[in-house]
Amino acid sequence: MEKKHSLWYVILIASAAGMAGLLYGFDTAVISGAIGYLQELYNLSPAMEGWVISCVMIGGVTGVALSGFLSDRWGRKKLLMVSAIFFIISALGSAFALGVTTLVLARILGGLGIGFASALSVTYISECAPPAIRGRLGSMYQLFTILGICATFYINYGVANSGTHEWALDVGWRWMLGYGTIPGILFMILLFFIPESPRYLVQKKDDEQAFHILKRINGEQVAQKELKEIKASIEIEKSSSAKELLRPGLRMAMGVGVFLALFNQVIGMNAVTYYGPDIFRSVGFENNTEFLATSIIGSVQVVFTIVAILLIDKLGRKKLMAIGSSLMAVFMLLIGSIFYFDPANAGVLLIIMIAGFTAAFCVSMGPIPWIMIPEIFPNHLRAKAVGIATVFLWGANWAIGQFTPVLINNMGSTFTFWMFAVINVICFIFVMTIVPETKNKTLEEIGQLWKSKDKTQKEEKIQEELV
User: Fold this and answer.
1) Using CA atoms, how far apart are residues 214 and 37, in angstroms rounded to an integer?
2) Which of 165, 205, 336, 344 has a C-alpha 20 to 30 A away from that of 82?
3) For residues 302 and 298, what is the distance between their CA atoms, to the nearest angstrom?
4) Strand, coil or helix: what is 55?
5) What are the tens digits of pLDDT across the range 206-248?
6) What is the pTM of this model?
7) Which of 407, 409, 436 is nearest to 423 (CA)?
8) Transmembrane segments in this chain: where (predicted)?
9) How would you class 311 by CB atoms within 10 Å of its CB: exposed for 0-12, middle for 13-18, buried for 19 or more?
10) Alpha carbon distance 176, 104 (integer Å)
């Protein structure tokens, strides 16, 4: 009897590509531990503090913008390797930085690598994964992101407790940033064990190797069907351009993709991740307990990201996002109220409220946009559309990193968190009224959601000719 597929091979592919999230998670979290020391060492203003944190997104946006073109030319796997190399160099450059300028330059280089990886990782997984478990496998990127964030919070806590405050001010923050070489090296090693994307191989006329990979993933019968579908979509792609994303139907898909990317970043989680120790310090945490409190939040992220992976292909994307955004709005309202009424005596309560918000994020708007954005576009436009959506994602990420300290400094914590509550309400309305459900649909079936009748008939004719 024919072996249908190799589940372990699929898991290896998804895990290796998903490890790109470890780089993103490390970089997102490590600066929250270092920024307090950098602010004191270099007397940073709120705007400059935001710049040191957000400068990485400049590289990220650039990496995302170039990723589609470069991955079509060199392949997904090679560009993921380049991203790992850039991140390793960035970690070493940050650790040995001679001042703010060299630190910023090193972080921008790291952002370039993370930008490549963030645009390609989930796209690569979606091109390889069987439809029935694509959601769970696509969640690997977010899972590794959260594991990276959690581990880095504990690394920051451990480094902060490894010496005196003066030692941490002089050397400790360098160790925090330098530990980034570890996830970079792990990512690079794993990439040697995964194949190139079958879709890229078909683009390069290597149908035999593409079929071999698809057969290992799905079994022979499904592989034959998928190979025909990939070839059909590539033929369609030859006569298409990014302008199609502005046509009726696909214009809606592009709008959904962009807003999912924006909401992933602007609903408040990144403000907690980047400035967690500062937030806890503002309500009385001291003697490095602010790092411990942040580490607890990181542990909550890991637990509920695993919950999301178990639920996403059962409950569906839309339902989880609706539940999560509504809960996040409530928790942000309560967090803002804590700062309004009695922040000095609300340490434990604040941890509980932020943990609740974090749990809601991790089962909804954390992993799901990373999965749905590649899903909702037809094959022949996916790379272009994902690149555009991810540019918006990184742009929003930059805005949160840059302006959160300015908002808290000028408008206060209460206004800032209530603003995030309003954004979550808008997110809930958007999910309920516009976002489609993509659970258990193949990429081709999802693509038909946005197509006009004439366009669908044209593609069916091409497929019939190929068959």
Assistant:
1) 50
2) 205
3) 7
4) coil
5) 888 888 888 888 777 778 888 887 787 777 766 666 677 777 7
6) 0.77
7) 407
8) 7-38, 50-70, 79-98, 104-125, 137-155, 175-194, 252-271, 291-313, 320-341, 347-373, 385-403, 415-435
9) middle
10) 15
